[in-house]
Amino acid sequence: MTIQGNERTYRTIAVTSGKGGVGKTNLTMNLGVLMAQHGRRILVLDADLGLANLDVILGLKSPYQLHHVIRGEKDILEIVAEGPGGTRIITGGSGILELLELTEAQRETFIGEFWKLGSVADIVLFDTGAGLSSNVLAFLLAADEVVVVATPEPASITDAYATIKVIAQKNRHASLKLIVNMVEAPEEALNVAEKLIQVCQQFLNIKIEYIGYVPRDKNVLQAIRSQQAFTIAFPQTPASRHLGSVAAQLLRSIGEEDEDSKFIGKIRRFFGNAA
Ligand SMILES: Nc1ncnc2c1ncn2[C@@H]1O[C@H](COP(=O)(O)OP(=O)(O)O)[C@@H](O)[C@H]1O
Ligand SMILES: [Mg+2]
């Protein structure tokens, strides 16, 4: 769904993996930072309702979280906090078990609050939890795009496939993208991508678009230790440069290229048509 906001619409991109610990949260936050550098208003929502950790990674402590909205105690715009690099974020509620399985009614209220985010964001990124609980699935099926993060580890590849399979069964037209993280050598990333693209095509008859890889980079760890986004702490480190290409590719792929290039495209078309 492209959610119809008060004044504008915004796009939703869910980031998922199947397996935990593949770098979802870090990639989501940093993709947000990079897309903000392209002039997009970005909101990162920690949709890992069970074991939220965006706030831990960033060292942020916001007084209000998603569960206040779920319980109807707060309006969603009241819990939006400042994130790194001009982004905005909504953190989850660490370890609050009641959030693991929302009732149908709670989920409806919660989703109903969502349209309001259009007043502060052009793109909302969902950092989803590992596994495929009904809540994770709700976010994945509601999002305009799903970005699957896999690593070259066999367990991560099979879990990514299992996740894609569930999404494909529920929505044949899902728009799926793939990022390979923690890559040691470029061939390794290509190998993982080709394998996944092939099995998804063969067994699920669904296309996934490979949008690039992020190398294993010790500066990612270094940034996490100092509770910073790695693209801000180390903008020139290989992980940041590669994720920069991924962010640009993702924006192109969803038709959200830079205003500049849109402008150039329009001028080209204008002259093309006039000629
Ligand atoms: N590109 C990378 N290079 C090195 N380490 C990474 C990279 N991406 C993720 N990590 C490591 O993986 C850990 C888990 O990342 P996180 O974003 O929390 O994963 P998830 O959200 O999928 O559970 C991080 O703490 C970091 O140590
Ligand atoms: Mg995470």
Task: Summarize the structure in words.
- By secondary structure, this protein is of the alpha/beta class.
- It has a single domain, classed as 3-Layer(aba) Sandwich (Rossmann fold).
- It contains eleven helices and nine strands.
- Strands 1, 2, 3, 4, 5, 6, 7, 8 and 9 form a nine-stranded mixed beta sheet that branches.
- Strand 7, helix 6 and strand 8 form a beta-alpha-beta unit.
- Helix 6 runs parallel beside helix 7.
- The N terminus is likely disordered.
- The site of magnesium ion (MG) has 5 residues, from helix 1.
Give a brief rundown of this model.
The chain is α/β, with parallel strands linked by helices.
Features:
binds magnesium ion; binds adenosine-5'-diphosphate; Rossmann fold; 275 residues; alpha/beta; disordered N terminus; nine-stranded mixed beta sheet
Indicate the CATH class. Answer: Alpha Beta
Q: What is the number of helices?
A: 11
Number of strands: 9
Supply Rg: 18 Å
Low-confidence stretches: 3-7
In total, how many domains does the architecture comprise? Answer: 1
Q: What is the percentage of strand-forming residues?
A: 15-25%
Silhouette: globular
Largest sheet: 9 strands, mixed
Order of helices and strands: EEHEHHEEHEHEHEHEHHHH
End-to-end Cα distance, whole Å, is 38 Å
The CATH superfamily title: P-loop containing nucleotide triphosphate hydrolases
Mean pLDDT over the full residue set? 86
Reported by name, the CATH topology is Rossmann fold
Structural class: alpha/beta
Return the CATH architecture: 3-Layer(aba) Sandwich
Helical coverage, percent range:
40-55%
List the ions, cofactors and other small molecules found in this model. Answer: adenosine-5'-diphosphate, magnesium ion
